[in-house]
Write a structure and sequence with these properties.
By secondary structure, the chain is α+β, with helices and mostly antiparallel strands. Among the domains are: 310 residues, alpha-galactosidase from lactobacil brevis (Beta-galactosidase, Chain A, domain 5), CATH 2.70.98; 78 residues, Golgi alpha-mannosidase II (Immunoglobulin-like, Sandwich), CATH 2.60.40.1180. It is built from 13 helices and 38 strands. The strands form 7 sheets. Strands 6, 7, 8, 9, 11, 12, 14, 15, 19 and 20 form a 10-stranded antiparallel beta sheet that branches. The chain has an 8-stranded parallel barrel with strand order 21-22-23-26-27-28-29-30, surrounded by 6 helices. Strands 5, 10, 13, 16, 17 and 18 form a 6-stranded antiparallel beta sheet that branches. The chain is globular. The structure holds alpha-D-galactopyranose.
């Protein structure tokens, strides 16, 4: 299988479907990385070690034996420790009872086993004994801290995962100050960094830039992985493009403060580390206690960014997302948020549902405003009792009427929050995250509940359970609309306040896990002011995620493009909304809104009762077409043909057996008579494909000569083409 150990050379070789990762136990027990890249056929690549000290500014290891000297500051460290001669960014830093944080990480032993173990209290990817193999390397610091590095390789994917466990083997407390999930030292400095930045309504914009010398940090300190940076980054080797060249992707299965840091040093090594953000973090370990880092997913591609994305998509479909929801077609929903905002009642919702049923949709999702006295965003979060003035007879009456139309019912919650104006806040003002004696920052009139507290977690589980048991609710939209501030917890002792951020995330996982176990048939959709907190950990609970509050299709092309760098289409919730768009004011054709939304999990976010006859026909057609073709998008391979940086954008999905393909082309900005050819990708060159007009062409022609898309098209006009192999 994938992991071998050469005991003579003391070298480990970790092979995935197309990559090798090689590391060795160096003299003195230092763990050294030797190689990460395209698969190698031999493990004896010790000659790749960089071990010379260059001048007196670079310390040499004092403990290395005899005449053998090397410098931790120039070696490829496997898990660089703080304070022992490696001045670059460190992966581990543990403060000891003496008050210093000098840390060292030396080999003690290892074990290799089939499969993969879950992380206590945290989501991670799965791998059965036949699919994955794991290596654990046990290291130790002189203080007694045990540091176990855990690697899993997957036989059918160019993917490996990494994480670490820190155990206090001393007899006094230790404080973990840095504990990254993965660290890799590459032996050249010329990478470009690709990362996903953004804000509300503009999530996951793509930036590629040379790393340059020094430290670069992509991170969140907001308590959530967030809108501003996604816990994903890739190092692009020189010459890497969409379909060729080497790309190394790093993604954290984590929803809290994260950090992906790179450092290019003076000698030409590039270090990348990925894990929990050390800023504001300190975790006390009493003797015998363990700390688990989240998991980092590492993907290698020698087919450019496109190959990297396709590999991640496939890996997440097979090893992260809930299997059940991959097989079950997702409901095509109508969500009432942009249709009514807070101004709805049962009659209005039933009227929308009636239209939805006639047009072939599957579910009505009641968004914000059904509970407490919430008629705007100023109150009632935390008071999860139905507003009977709006919904007489409650959700059960609504569910009955909606179900009678043949539709399911979904409901919005924002479980982690409490409004200042709420019964919950009045009863338990200390349940929110705040710092005694300081003003509390407020955002959208709400505070964040302290999920590190058991009674708060129980309240959320109990109050949501009451609602979910009260009616036939088949879908939950789980929202999260503000970040954490004045970070302290009323219950944690002073020397554990630095644990709050991570305890919050663990609390969140526990609450969602408990609710999902109680309501296993409910489909949970994630949301965080749109697509904040869109990360693999959330996706392990929420098979789909509201991609962005910006539903303008032109903006959405960019957002979905950026999202697709790491995350598969089957996770992207995308809705057709009204024109002019509520966020941008842009007018776009109904067809384009449909074509762009059909690149993910499709639905509507508009008042179906206000459609023209023509638009109703459009919806009917869109829904029917989507249902007939969605397997291509949900399970297929994505090819990003033209990135949305200029006047056009184009992409296509191809089924794994290459028998069906769906191509979408959008003229973002009009131009008179532009010549426009787009080469398809991913088809079988030797097969004949037939399009909806009966035109037959060889796959090789479509890929080498392309489609002729020349023609006058107005702003935001789109074309889709379906191809089937004969
Ligand atoms: C957030 C979500 C929206 C909607 C509103 C309701 O902004 O992203 O989709 O649910 O909250 O308040």
């Amino acid at each position: 299988m994938g992991i071998t150990f050469n005991s003579e050379k003391r070298i480990f070789k970790l092979d995935t479907s197309s990559s090798s990762y090689i590391l060795k136990i160096g003299r003195g027990g230092y763990m050294m990385g030797l190689y990460y890249g395209a698969r190698l056929d031999e493990c004896d690549v010790d000659y790749l070690t960089v071990r010379e000290g260059h001048d007196s500014t670079v310390p040499l290891s004092a403990s290395a034996e005899d005449d053998w000297r090397f410098s931790p500051d120039t070696m490829q460290a496997e898990y660089p420790a703080y304070g022992s001669g490696d001045f670059r960014i460190s992966a581990v830093k543990i403060k000891n009872a003496a008050g210093n944080s000098v840390t060292d990480c030396r080999y003690e032993g290892h074990r290799i086993y089939k499969g993969k173990e879950p992380i206590p209290g945290m989501p991670s990817t799965r791998g059965s004994d036949g699919e994955a193999e794991t290596l654990e390397i046990m290291c130790r610091d002189v203080t007694g801290a045990g540091i176990t590095l855990i690697y899993t390789v997957f036989e059918n994917h160019p993917v490996m995962t990494r994480r670490a466990v820190i155990k206090n083997g001393a007899d006094s407390p230790l404080w973990v100050e840095r504990a990254f999930s993965a660290a890799v030292d590459f032996t050249h400095p010329e990478f470009r960094l690709l990362h996903l930045w953004g804000c509300w309504g503009r999530e996951r914009a793509v930036e590629r830039r040379p790393l340059g010398h020094g430290i670069t940090k992509i991170s969140s300190g907001r308590g959530a992985s967030g809108h501003y940076h996604n816990p994903f980054a890739a190092l692009l080797a020189p010459g890497c493009s969409e379909e060729s060249g080497e790309a190394y992707g790093f993604n954290l299965v984590y929803s809290g403060n994260f950090s992906i840091e790179t450092e290019v040093d003076a000698f030409g090594l590039t270090r990348i580390i990925a894990g929990i953000n050390p800023e504001g973090f300190s975790w006390k370990l009493d003797p015998g206690e363990e700390f688990y880092t989240p998991e980092a997913v590492m993907v290698y591609s020698d087919h450019g960014e496109g190959g990297m994305s396709r590999a991640l998509h496939k890996f997440y479909r097979e090893h992260l997302l809930e299997r059940e929801w991959l097989k079950t077609p997702r409901p095509v929903v109508v969500n009432n948020w942009e249709a009514t905002y807070f101004g709805f009642d049962t009659e209005k919702l039933v009227a929308i549902a009636k239209e939805a049923a006639g047009l072939g949709l599957d579910m009505l999702v009641v968004d914000d405003g059904w509970f407490g006295k919430r008629n705007d965003d100023r109150s009632s979060l935390g008071d999860w009792t139905v507003n009977e003035e709006k919904l007489p007879g409650g959700l059960s009456e609504l569910a009955k009427r909606v179900n009678a139309l043949g539709l399911g019912l979904g409901v919005w919650f924002e479980p982690e929050m409490v409004s200042r104006d709420s019964d919950l806040f009045r009863a338990h003002p200390d349940w929110c995250i705040h710092t005694e004696g300081r003003d509390m920052s407020i955002a959208r009139h709400q505070y964040v509940l302290d999920l590190s507290r058991q009674e708060v977690r129980d309240y959320i589980v109990d109050s949501l359970s009451v609602v979910l048991s009260s009616a036939n609710i088949e879908y939950v939209k789980w929202d999260f609309n503000r970040n954490l501030t004045e970070y302290s917890s009323a219950l944690l002792p002073a020397d554990r306040q630095g644990e709050l951020f991570h305890r919050y995330v663990l609390g969140l996982y526990s609450v969602i896990g408990r609710l999902k176990a109680k309501f296993p048939d409910v489909l949970f959709e994630g949301c965080a002011s749109g697509g904040g907190r869109y990360d693999p950990a959330m996706l392990s609970f929420f098979p789909q995620y509201w991609t962005s509050d910006d539903t303008d299709p032109i903006e959405r092309i960019k957002i979905q493009y950026g999202t697709s760098l790491a995350y598969p289409a089957c996770t992207m919730s995308c809705h057709v909304s009204a024109s002019p768009n509520h966020q941008t004011g842009r007018k776009t054709p109904f067809k384009t809104r449909g074509d762009v939304a059909a690149a993910g999990v499709f639905g509507y976010e508009l008042d179906l009762t206000a459609l023209s006859e023509r638009e109703r026909d459009d919806v009917k057609r869109q829904v029917a077409e989507y249902k007939a073709r969605r397997h291509i998008v949900m399970e297929g391979d994505l090819y990003r043909l033209v990135p949305p940086d200029g006047d056009i954008a184009a992409w296509m999905y191809v089924t794994p057996d290459k028998t069906e393909a769906l191509f979408t082309y959008v003229r973002i900005k009009t131009m008179i008579a532009p010549v426009s050819f787009v080469k398809l990708r991913g088809l079988d060159p030797d097969r004949v494909y037939i399009d909806e007009n009966g035109v037959r062409r060889l796959g090789s022609t479509l890929m080498r000569a392309g489609l002729n898309m020349t023609g006058n098209r107005r702003d935001a006009e789109s074309v889709t083409m379906y191809f089937r192999a004969e």
